[in-house]
Amino acid sequence: MKEKLKEFIVDLKLDEAEACADQLIRNGIDSQSLYDVVMDGLAEIGNKYENGECFIADLIVSGMMAKNIFEAANISKDSQKPSEPLGTVIIGTIYDDIHDIGKDLMVDALENKGIKVIDLGVDVKVEKFIEAVKQHNPDIIAVSCVMINSIGFIEELGIALEKEKLLKNRRFLLGGAVVNNEYVRIPQIDFMTNNFYEGIKYCEVYLRKKIEGEKGE
Ligand code: B12
What are the tens digits of pLDDT across the range 98-118? Predict the structure, then answer.
């Protein structure tokens, strides 16, 4: 049935894909397996787009399918929500990139971990990130990016954060499909991953250490 779901996604059969996903969820599929099937389907859509076999409208449909299935499966759910916020994360998709599905998965998963999230949205200019850091004094600055063309804006952000001395006592995190790209060499970045489970783990470990550190002072 997982194969069937992937087929429906690649063939952009929205209703069939969502019905199939619902059935798999009712049958108790684990979130990681469902997540992997959807990501495989989207990767194939991406390749078909690159080969001119599908078009922007198809990307839109595939995005809607992924969002609906991830929501139905509550992929980023987590029960252990602490009473006190573990810390604060500012997140946004970098300038000239409007992809938000990955960012939104991160936002949900961070909030489910009891982490306060300030979501700046998509297409976020460097200045807006800087302003938000000064205003909210976050523990972590998280950037999402899937567009190769936007790598330059992440570099600019790293340089601006350093110049404004805004990297002290906080972490600068990059996520999104773009991290696979060899051109991403940004010295100010502390951690980068294209897997939100890893991203969540990194944030949680850093914030718990920070709290311990503050208690120990
Ligand atoms: C759906 C989609 C769209 C939808 C997006 C809908 C939405 N609400 O986001 C729409 C239709 C808007 C779109 C538009 C375009 N798209 Co598009 N799109 C896709 C597609 C098929 C899926 C992307 C997606 O949502 N994946 C699912 C999410 C969950 O995966 P993810 O983003 O990688 O996130 C995961 C991790 O990376 C991580 N993560 C993400 N962010 C963060 C942040 C942090 C801090 C952390 C820790 C982790 C993390 O967590 C997520 C789960 O693990 C991809 C192909 C693909 N398979 O990637 C093409 C793709 C990204 N698009 C592409 C292109 C070219 C475009 C357009 C230019 C097309 C056009 N001609 O207009 C426009 C660009 C507009 C712009 N300026 O951004 C290219 C990009 C090429 C490149 N790398 O530069 C791709 C790769 C297709 C291709 N192979 O050519 N697209």
Answer: 999 999 999 988 998 889 999
